[in-house]
Specification:
60s Ribosomal Protein L30, Chain: A; 2 domains; 64% helix
């Protein structure tokens, strides 16, 4: 059997190779163009975005410029207003320069009066400060002198510039009596030393009782008991410790000035007390008022 052979012309093969190569080149060229197109699209978008941002910035800049122009206009108006007021003030000063001698003297007297009032107020403030300082020194001295006394039996306090020293009656007197005990005289001696160190101070000895009805011997009621106890303490301070009686006032308040309810034994014990009241020195303020007149 005879074999058949196909003969492909060389020119055809060469054409086929050339065509494939051109196709590949065309495809490569297309890809390059497509890539370039995409890049151009991206650049276009960037340009559009940048253009938008620039428009926003420009609008803000225009708004700021308008705001500044408005502020400048406002400042110009204010400046004009101030100039006008200054001119008015200068005109007033020119008018003042032609006041009469009587008016000038009146103004001088008013200024002197204001100055005198200012000095007077400073004097009052100085006096008050000095009084407060003396009060605190007195309280500290009393507390220091009575440090060894039970806090329940003696109490020192300041209220509205007045110093109060409360001494319980169980320390000063026996029950129902107005005779001062020997132990109490020691306590009163410590208080007297502090009071003697301040001879300008006046004070009051004040007797207080509880609300239980009382009658014993020559004592008719709580009024009698409170007054007798106050005068007993006063005599001790005067005779035993040399306090000037002109500085002392003795008083009794009976049951009518309690510091605690009388409904319990503890409350009644607090109300049975002798109080030393350091009187405020009002004469200093009266003297200042007299000088003012």
């Amino acid at each position: 059997m005879k074999k058949s052979f196909w003969v492909i012309p060389v020119s055809l093969v060469m054409f086929s190779c050339t065509a494939n190569k051109k196709i590949q080149q065309s495809e490569e060229k297309y890809r390059q163009l497509d890539s370039a197109y995409l890049q151009m699209q991206a650049k276009l978008r960037d340009c559009e975005k940048s253009n938008t941002e620039q428009n926003v910035v420009q609008k803000k800049s225009d708004a700021n410029e308008q705001s500044l122009l408005s502020e400048i206009a406002s400042l110009k108006k204010m400046n004009a207003f101030l100039k006008e007021n200054n001119n008015a003030a200068l005109n007033q000063l020119r008018d003042l320069s032609v006041i009469s001698n009587a008016q000038a003297e009146s103004i001088k007297e008013s200024l002197d009066h204001i100055g005198a009032n200012d000095v007077y107020i400073r004097s009052l403030q100085s006096t008050i400060a000095r009084k407060d300082s003396l009060t605190m020194a007195l309280v500290n001295n009393l507390k220091s002198a009575l440090t060894d006394i039970n806090d329940q039996d003696i109490n020192i306090k300041v209220d509205k510039g007045v110093v109060y020293v409360d001494i319980s009656d169980k320390m000063l007197f026996n029950s129902g009596s107005y005779d001062v005990t020997a132990k109490a005289k020691t306590v009163l001696g410590k208080v007297a030393r502090v009071l003697n160190a301040h001879p300008e101070i006046e004070f009051m000895i004040e007797g207080n009782t509880d609300s239980k009805p009382f009658k014993h011997g020559d004592l008719v009621d709580n009024w009698d008991l409170s007054v007798k106890r106050a005068t007993s303490v006063t005599r001790i301070l005067q005779k035993n410790y040399g306090l000037d009686p002109k500085r002392i006032t003795a008083a009794g308040r009976s049951e009518y000035f309690p510091v605690a309810p009388n409904t319990s034994a503890e409350g009644r014990a607090l109300n049975r007390r002798t109080r030393i009241v350091i009187l405020p020195q009002l004469d200093q303020f009266f003297k200042l008022l007299e000088t003012k007149k």
